[in-house]
Design brief:
mainly beta; Jelly Rolls; 8-stranded antiparallel sheet
């Protein structure tokens, strides 16, 4: 028996193979600070206006952190390349993962040179995206990602807990942003079983503004958080109990299937995703 608690919204279930609208939403916007500002405590706030948490919290030991200092991706991450996970809904290239200005930037843009599959790439106009997976994995804990997206409707971003086996489900998407609702909604999805069952949640928030999205994962339960507040809870016996990696990926919203293509490639603003920092904690 599955018990679900909703703080802001009701969930929806769907079975794989049946079109299930992504639960996307957005919550009260976090106040933005000037880029690179320094607070009264003299702690650099970083590009997002909120510094990366450093050190342990009551009941939690910090076991992973990255604020993307420097000019290259730390060796604790792996970059996506080509088709990922056997799907054909997009194409990724290592060159679309950039680190600068204290941010990890996942870039999506028209890149016919980087999109090398002559059969699939024309279906989505050779739009290529960026994605990374942490080499670090653990079972249960607290995960936080601070990010913002660009105001482009046909690109998506997901922050995911992905199984160490690379065979999903199980899968927990604790930030799902994209499509025409990306300025008004952020979602989350719990996936499990064969065929796949999806439990979706959503809340009102603007993903083009900086937010800290997270998940607190414990046996039989996930709690989704935004800017330090729990906004939804799923209690479910099918919650993952295996080690999971952190995955951050952008992607074109369209699917690479016959008869369905993306809109005309962007010509002005690249729909990048800016990520200021990522942290993870283990329960003590």
């Amino acid at each position: 028996m599955t018990v679900r608690t909703r703080l802001l919204t009701r969930n929806r279930r769907c079975i794989a193979g049946v079109l299930c609208a992504l639960a996307l939403i957005a919550v009260f916007a976090a106040g933005a600070s000037a880029r690179g500002a320094v607070g009264p405590d003299r702690v650099p706030r970083g590009p997002s206006g909120v510094p990366m948490p450093v050190g342990n919290l009551p009941g939690w030991k910090q076991v992973f952190k990255d604020d993307f200092a420097g000019s290259s991706l730390d060796s604790k991450w792996q970059k996506y390349n080509g088709i990922v996970g056997g799907g054909q809904g997009g194409w990724w290239a290592r060159s679309h993962v950039v680190v600068h200005g204290g941010e990890l930037v996942l870039e999506t843009y028209h890149d016919p040179v980087g999109c090398t599959n002559a059969t699939i790439c024309p279906l989505f106009n050779d739009e290529v995206s960026g994605g990374v997976k942490s080499k670090f994995a653990m079972t249960y804990g607290k995960f936080l990602v601070r990010f913002r997206t660009r105001p482009i409707a046909n690109d998506s971003f997901m922050a995911i807990l992905w199984p160490e086996s690379n065979i999903a489900p199980p899968e927990t998407d604790f930030a799902v942003v994209g499509g025409p609702l990306h300025l008004t909604s952020i979602g989350a999805m719990l996936k499990y079983g064969r065929p796949t069952t999806v439990v979706s949640d959503s809340l009102t928030a603007n993903a083009a503004q900086w937010h800290t999205l997270g998940v607190i994962w414990s046996p039989g339960e996930v709690e989704y958080t935004i800017d330090g507040h729990v906004w939804a809870t799923d209690k479910n016996a099918n919650v993952s109990s295996v080690p999971m990696h952190i995955v951050l990926q952008s992607q074109t919203v369209c699917e690479a299937v016959p008869g369905q293509t993306c809109t005309t490639p962007w010509t002005a603003t690249e729909p990048n995703v800016d990520i200021a920092w990522v942290v993870a904690y283990r329960h003590t």
